[in-house]
Design a protein that fits this description.
Oligomer: single chain
Radius of gyration: 34 Å
Helix content: over 70%
Strand content: under 5%
Length: 95
């Protein structure tokens, strides 16, 4: 009699484990499907943006070589002198 009751408990434990795993797996699959549907419009926008950035017009308009900081221009380099040093700027401000 003892053998039958322990065997039933053992089988019930296996069933509980299998059912918990089934619930976890089904929730993960459902979450994956939901995430895919939620982000599909963003993926379409991203693909369109990627095609746009590959065009020559976009690359020409957004060429990083065209953009420079003010201190990198030749005009600023020629006209910068004593007052561009940090401590001397404070002194020149009080004069």
């Amino acid at each position: 009699m003892e053998f039958n009751t322990t065997m039933r408990r053992h089988q019930h434990g296996k069933f509980a484990l299998v059912s918990e795993l089934f619930v976890i797996i089904s929730v993960l699959i459902e979450h994956g499907i939901h995430s895919l549907e939620k982000h599909r419009p963003k993926l379409k926008k991203w693909k369109a943006w990627e095609q746009e950035t590959n065009s020559l017009e976009y690359q020409f308009n957004n060429d990083p070589a065209r953009f420079r900081f003010a201190h990198q221009t030749s005009f600023v380099r020629q006209h910068s002198g004593f007052s561009t040093m940090p401590r001397s700027q404070m002194g020149c401000g009080f004069l």
